[in-house]
Amino acid sequence: MEAKRRRLSKSADPVTPPRTSVPDGGSPKTTARSTRSATSMAKIVEALREELSSCELEKAQKSLGYLKKKLSSKISVSDFMRSEKSFPTLITVFHESFSKLNDTKAGDSYAAILRETISVIANCCHLSLESCLRLKPANAKVINSALRILESGTRTSWTLKACVLRLIANLCEHKETAMCVVEAPQLVDRIAMMVSAEDENTSKNALRIVRLLSSSFSRYVVLSNACHYIGQLLNKVYYEDSDPRKAAILAVLQTLSRNYARDVGRQLAAGLSADDASPRNCTKDFLALLLRDPTNSLSETEERWVALILSMTLCSFELREIFGEDAIREAVSIEDAFKNANLCKFLSFFSYDAWGRAKLRESGALTIILQRLDETRELDERDVIVSSLRHFIHDTIGMGFLLKHSIFPTIALKHLREYLKNRSYTCTPELKAEDDLSDALACVTSAVTVSLEENPSSSSERLRKEYTTEPRSPSCNWSPSMSSYSNSLSPSPSSTSDDLYSLNWAGGFDNDDASSRPSVGDRFTLSHLSFNEEPTSKKLNKEEQAIAGEMFILSWLSHEEVNHKYLINQEIVSALVGYISRAPTLDLKAARSLKRLARSRACIHQLLEIRFQTIVVHYLLRQPCTLVRNAKTCDRCDKRMEYGREVLREFSTHIDSEFGWSYLSQSLKSSNKQKRLSSYLAGLILLRSGHHRKRFMQFFHPLDELWEYLSAVLKDKNAFEEDRLAMEPPLSCQLLVALSILVTSFPSLSEENDILEVLPKFLVSEDKCFVESQDDSVPTLKFRSKQGALLATVPKDRVCSASEYFRGMFGSEFLESIENRQEFVFDPTSEGCDESDFTNFLHFLSGCRQKRCFSVTSAKRCVSLLYLADRYLCSELSKFLLHPKIGSVKTLLNGDNLQEFLPVCLSISRIDQQLGKMCMRTMLQFSSDAQLTKTLETLVGDSRGTELFVRFLKDFLNRYERAWSS
């Protein structure tokens, strides 16, 4: 064991501490042995000091060798440290021998003594922390001497330098003493230079120091430019797998690149290319590792090298320049290169540089990257590629290539569809409490009245409620009319800096604190609207980052007007609107891109062709909470509607001008019926000025052709099916939604404003059941089922009073009156309801108003009671059900059950006026596209029902039509 320690010391290799440990407490015999050992070694040190003083250098070398043999274990070093004078004396020997290195006669002998002294001190520091701590007070002088030795060049041997580096490495094993080393930056710099030394032992010890410091003092290592010399060493040892320095280099670079990847890459690149004449340059081997066929699995070490290369290539443009254009050309030449994930990542990093983007585009590597983006299902890989492609915003030609000559838009839309399929968010409407309904209705009514009285023309210049109301902020006096027709396609300076440099560049989340009224020069931002739905500190997951990055690229493409004709197509616009409407969080960058497209004056004809206004209305303005009567206000839906109104106003500004009117009028005169109908709908939605509305209604009579088309579709089953399959949403639904613009534009004309102030007498409940408590002296009527079971016994007088049918039956000379008929049999088929609904009806006829006797809790029962009220001429029940304030129809009627109420409206002539208005309003204002289609299906093939339906719809919209065109 002692011989092995000697051999390690002479070669300046680190000494491995033995596994044995010093016991906490020992026997007297052990203590005595330790004392004798300490005394013996103290005598050796004193003798060494005397021999050095008397210049007996050979004896001094022998004493050092004997002492070195003694201090070969942790126990012996511990015994040696018991003496207070031994270790300081050894330090003194170090300084004396160092001071006499330049002695012309005995310089070599002093150098040998110094080397052995350093070796002994290094052994002590390696085996005992106490030795390191005792050396600490003298560190300044020791470190200065070590620095002078390392700087001495050829005047000192490589062996002495290796010994000094080994001593420093042992000091760096402990964080307490490593601080003294890093506080001497010149020493750290010199150690870094020794990494690429010609002597292998010197290089190993220097690299060991760098590895030890990199874990806790990585900043000092980076500042010393150590990676530059590691790069030089790497060119030498990368081809020798048996050299332990290769594994140490990998560990050092991985540790340093965690926090300083850019600096490490820069220094490493300089080191790798320091000697261009050298035939050895491991960058080619790095590239070969990346180009390897992905079917051949890599070893664990090779995978670590690949990960390191990718991380540093990402952060260091110097390293990318070393690989150069040749790396891109070699990558492109490989067959099926897009199947190699590491290679595609590597190629994508070249997009960070201007020359790299140009080379990727020209060589075809960009197509390979996009193919990989399309194929991969790994979210981390997708995020890396998309983040790299984001830098093409600095390359106008490259962005044009992505849009016009690549599959990027198709890939982005595919990913967006997959994301929305799994992460789509649909708001669940919540109904208001009954106490809130009357207050809300009163506020709305009063607000509308004041608005119309103060500015009677304002309602005709705006689209009210869900569609194009002005922003609610009273301080926001900006309007799209302030925008010029020219396309200012660059964002505001603040918007640009946010897009490129903010941490939330992909998500586009705006802070509430930044919400303010936009200036005239900042018209592309929506900063005056509060769109925050989640804190900006929320970290996006990988899929959200990738989707937001792709939307960011599409958004940036919209800055250039020449790109608009490629972006404005049905698929891209629908996807953007769907993303804005259905994504869990509103992405303002995608929203702004849609607004820029709406402002594109040069592409008005394309926007009209793809029915841009229909897409915005159906998917942004018709949010779930707005399609439910008496639903609570939803911040999420309100934000999207507010933005939808902004977009629609921008587009309307172009259409509602002489320039836009020329395009619209050409479409209105088209011989293509579908195109002409779509133009009619566009005119109803987008025209705002009075003179354009008048010309539109007087010259083209759009409603007449719309009525004709709707009638034709509903009367023919095949035509309805073709309409349903031709587009999404069907043209019949688009027609009804466009007509709803007329209704929502003039809330003051609503029939719901005619509210009765005093409740009728029949609405006052009486705490008594007239069916159960019968007086034998009172004439009654009995109603039985077909099986003979008694359903109810009701007072005859009350029934005749409430029902004109029974009053006429028993008040005239009909057969029932002549025969004094007192029992009736209930037939569910002829009555069109079940026994419970009919019994409920009998309770109402008897005057019962308690909930346990008479209640309307479902649409089915409400429909049945409407039929019974008409059949038995009970006007009180009809008025009760159709009361505009507390009526059951108003409470229960919605888009889901409209198909049940509509047949009642069409078949009952006595109450069609009030019920028809409620059904038409529900259809136009509170029904989704799917509900509209389902409702229209009930009319398909029914010519008479279709005619009645169209007539009701005409009558309902008549006053709105006059107001809109006036």
TrEMBL record:
Q: Compositional bias (Low complexity) at which positions?
A: 30-39
Query: Can you quote a single GO CC term?
Result: cytosol
This protein's superkingdom? Eukaryota
Q: Which InterPro entries match?
A: ARM-like, ARM-type_fold, SKP1/BTB/POZ_sf
* Disordered as annotated region, ranges: 1-39, 454-480
Which terms does the UniProt entry file under GO BP? anatomical structure morphogenesis
> What PANTHER family is this protein classified in?
ARMADILLO REPEAT-CONTAINING PROTEIN 5 (PTHR23312:SF8), ARMC5 ARMADILLO REPEAT-CONTAINING -RELATED (PTHR23312)
Kindly provide the name given to this protein in its UniProt entry.
BTB domain-containing protein
